[in-house]
Amino acid sequence: MARYVCTNCNAEYEEKTPDGFCSNQPACEYGSGWLKEVTAEGGTRGPASAPPLENGGGQSGPGGPLSFEREIGLCILMMDGSLSMGETAFPSTGYPGNKYHLVSMNAAGGIWSLKNITRPEDAFIVLCAFAGKPELVWIKNVKEIVAEHKTREAFSEYLYQTLETRTPEPRVTNLNSAVNLAYAIYKAYMNGDLSGFGGIKDFKPLSHKVVRHDGQGGEEYIAIPNAKVLIYTDGEHNVTAAVKNPFLEEPQSILMSAFIGEDEDSAGIKQMRNLANVCPKHAPAKGFFLVNSPERIQTLKGLFRMASGASGFCPSCLALERPIATAPETRTAPEPETSPNPVQDLAPSASEHEVPSGP
Ligand SMILES: [Zn+2]
Ligand SMILES: [Zn+2]
């Protein structure tokens, strides 16, 4: 008798769900598990991925002092909406979705996990779709997104439709124009005025101090703005101009990047790795994430979450956040020099002040 088991939570099904994904919510983290067929004698297979991240959990950090000047954090999502995203995400596996599914479900899940932070109205997301040209879709805060879409599933569906239908020049991939738009928005944030992009003005960009390690024993205190950019692609830059990175002009780049797909020979992998920041905490590690198999789905969701508000810049930062998110009782007290920060307080013990302990 054919049966199916979820790759994430091991829930068993007599029949496949209509979309092929696990419907065991909230126990199974949304978008993480899908159904694989197992034979009666084959038994169930082990979970394909790490334990799911806790879903926000309603924990709030210590409330920041009242402030009369609004302080906001910013996440610019530069999402590849090119036609190839409509292809099966991981053809060599049984993953049931295309790449639009993959990124929409995990972006929605990652952003949704932030809805219980202390001040979701001050955690802003800039949604952009790009291929041959980038398009800014909107700037909204997490509170507005949750109120508007009601459920993670509805928000995921909205993202899917947006990427599929609103991406200009979907047959081309121009990383330069995408990164340049992200940089212009970032500079506007640093100037406290996003009105030129349809966002708010008269706010104060947040920053926090971190110890930057140079990877050779040296360290220094630097201020990092509470803004991040995440760009991903499943393709490669295919217009004539060479890829340039304006974020290299900044004292610390806040650009994270990912490559999605099984094509290990794609030039896009090297291009995305080159664009990524050098993590201030884990140098020379770069803020680049390769999502080339279903086992990396948790990484993708964690990456969207990290870009949208939780602290961290690179895969090592993400690995530090994960156990904390599943075991909130082990959190340590926030360190005094941590600024009161509406979007960083999810994971105070993953603060950049800490030296990572070994694996
Ligand atoms: Zn499941
Ligand atoms: Zn790091």
Compact summary:
With 359 residues, the chain is an alpha/beta fold. It has helices spanning 99-112, 142-149, 152-166, 175-190, 267-275, 297-308, 315-326, and strands at residues 3-6, 12-13, 35-38, 71-80, 123-130, 134-141, 204-205, 207-213, 219-225, 227-233, 255-260, 288-291.
What does this structure look like?
With 359 residues, the protein is an alpha/beta fold. It has 2 domains: 1-43, no CATH class; 71-350, Rossmann fold (3-Layer(aba) Sandwich), CATH 3.40.50.410. It has helices spanning 99-112, 142-149, 152-166, 175-190, 267-275, 297-308, 315-326; strands at residues 3-6, 12-13, 35-38, 71-80, 123-130, 134-141, 204-205, 207-213, 219-225, 227-233, 255-260, 288-291. Strands 4, 5, 6, 7, 10, 11 and 12 form a 7-stranded mixed sheet that branches. The protein has a 3-stranded antiparallel sheet with strand order 2-1-3, with no helix packed on it. A two-stranded antiparallel sheet has the order 8-9. Strand 1 (3-6) and strand 2 (12-13) form a beta hairpin. Helix 1 packs across helix 3 (152-166) and helix 1 packs across helix 6 (297-308). The longest helix is centred in the middle third of the chain and has 16 residues, at 175-190. It is globular. It binds zinc ion (2 copies). The site of one zinc ion has 8 residues, from loops.
